[in-house]
Each structure stands twice: as C-alpha cells, then as structure tokens.
Fold each of these.
Amino acid sequence: MGIAITPSILNADLADLAGEIARIPSADAVHLDVMDNHFVPNMTFGLPVVESLRRHSGMPMDIHLMITDADRWAPAYAEAGCESVTFHAEATQAPIRLARELRALGAKAALALKPATSIEPYADMLSEVDMVLIMTVEPGFGGQPFLDVCLPKIRRTRELAKSAGVEIAIQVDGGVSAETIERAALAGADTFVAGSAVFRSDDPDQVVRKLRAMAGG
Ligand code: DX5
Ligand code: ZN
C-alpha cells in the first residue's frame, strides 16, 4: 500500500468547502470531520452538508465520525457514496457489525482510537477493517500539537496487522506537519491527515506534495 495524504478541511473556509477542496488536487481524499458536540466538545457538519458536497466535488471522501452512537449514523455516509467511513471505538456498540455493514454498502470501514485507547482489545478484528485511525491529538479541534506518546501504538498496530497477515492502512490524525510526519511514517503510518499545516498555508497543494515526499511517497 502506498502513501496517502488526506487533508482535513476543519480549519479551512467552511463557507466554501468545494472551493477549498479544489485547492488540493494532489490529495488522495478529503478528510471530513463530523462532530456532534457530544463525543467531542465541538460541532461541525453532518450528512446534509456531506451529501451536498458530494455533488460539488469529485474528490474521494474520508469521513471521520466524532459522534456518539456511530452504529446508528455511520451507514448513511456509505449510502451517500463516501469512499471511507471511520467510527470511534469509544462511540460504537458493535464495531464488527458496523464495519461489515459499511463494507457491504461499498465503503471502506475504519476504526479510530483516541490517544488513551489501546489497540490491543481490537487486535482480533483487524481483518474486519480497511484502516485504523490513530489520533495523535485529543479529538475536537485542529491546530493542536502532535502527541508523540501515540507513536508506540502506531508501531504496535503495524506489528499486530503483520502477525495477523492482514493489510490495513494506518492513518494518523492530529498535529501532522512537516515537523512530525517523518516520525509517524517511521512508526508505520501510511495515511496522513493534515489540517492546519495544509490550509493555513498560501499554497495548500504544495504542502500536500511536500508531506507526501517526506512520508516516503
Ligand atoms: C481533530 C480532527 C482532525 C483535525 C486535524 O479532532 O479529527 O482531523 O482537523 O487538524 P490539525 O492537522 O490541525 O491537527
Ligand atoms: Zn479527523
């Protein structure tokens, strides 16, 4: 599996999402942070906005659900044609059932872990998902510093997948920038969310290309 750069529009101009996505043509997908003000102390947008955006952009959509009761809400994003749907381990009652449902609807299924959540309880279900998202900040806001304390979990996830003989992507999200991407890649991540590093730049697409090169892609 190659390197993927999936910029987050959380810190972009939310009134012009389609325009912002058009500024990152080199990206592999756009990472859309759905927040409900319950699972995280912040609120963004939900399905109606994602459905509208789908009609305005051909860029693959990587949905990161930071919402309670993901079991109830996640499948609709797959039905809307989103390529990848990520649910949090801490907010899902039946992760295996949900992953199977998402895959049956034609989306990639991904399991996200907050910084203090271990991968080990989920080791036996790695074959049920396409990706594990390892948060490298506490979810809720862009622009926070990268938590190096999460690097060993990236390594352990890569090792667990290898010993189980499954091919999964490992995505890191939070504080990813030119200063931090190399150590995340070295630990075993291959899919990188970057929000402020990309959209606070005057040339977001150049940052996407630079991050890809730094990650070894
Ligand atoms: C945080 C979100 C991230 C965030 C990343 O809860 O999940 O996707 O937008 O932003 P940066 O790259 O600025 O940390
Ligand atoms: Zn995210």
Amino acid sequence: MKLIIAIIQDEDAGEVISHLNEAEIQVTRLATKGGFLRSGNTTIMTGVDDEKVDEALKIIEENSKSRTQYATLPSSCGAMHGFILAPIEVKVGGATVFVLDVDQFHKF
Ligand code: 2BA
C-alpha cells in the first residue's frame, strides 16, 4: 500500500476528488497554505493499494491545471529603501505529489 500526498490548487480540488471517488479511491482533504505565496491550496491524502497508484496519479495529473499567480515581495531597490512592493509572476502547479510506502494500515 502507498500513501499519496498531493498539493493541488483549490480550484482543482473538486474535480480531482470527485474523479478519485468515482474510481473508488478514498480521499482526505486538508485546507493548507503554501509557504511561498501564503495563499490557500488543498492537500489530499489518499491511501491506495499498489495496483491503484498509477490510476490515482493519472487522475490527479489530468485534473490539475498549471496557472500563473502574482506574488508581491519586498524589493531591496528603489526610493523607499526596501518598502516598494514588486509583483512577480509565479507559475503554480498542476500538482506537487509525494508517494510514500505505508508500513501499516488500520481502521479501528
Ligand atoms: P507555495 O509555497 O505557495 O509556492 C507556490 C509557487 O511559487 C510554486 O509552485 C513555485 O512555482 C513558486 N515558488 C515556491 N517557492 C519559491 C521560491 N523560493 N522562489 C521562487 N518561486 C518559488 P509549485 O512548485 O507548483 O508549488 C505549489 C505548492 O505546492 C507550494 O505553494 C507548496 O504549498 C507546495 N509544495 C511545492 N513543493 C513542495 C515541497 N517540496 N514540499 C512541500 N510542499 C511543496
């Protein structure tokens, strides 16, 4: 068994989760925030048998879109001595995915 942890954008979460559920793959959804943009994203955790890993990854990949976002970071140059905010373009996603071996799985 594997544990798939996937960080996806909030906008894609509904589609990803409903397609996983249709494939009889159970999901736990967590509301998370990226450390860089500090904006909300969604982390899904799903425990799957080894033979279902590829199917789950395909569903996550196919339903997670890459998007451009803007982050405003302090700039070190300019008249305000570091207080001018410089928006930068950041490409986010589709999905950041970790696949971990599961040592034990219990439902008590
Ligand atoms: P954030 O940390 O908010 O990062 C959003 C996007 O900003 C990233 O997209 C990346 O394109 C860019 N970015 C992140 N750190 C950067 C930096 N130091 N300098 C320049 N650009 C930077 P993604 O790579 O698609 O990541 C989307 C979200 O996935 C991240 O949100 C974070 O929540 C998570 N993530 C990505 N890689 C991770 C990792 N190795 N471990 C844990 N979480 C990760």
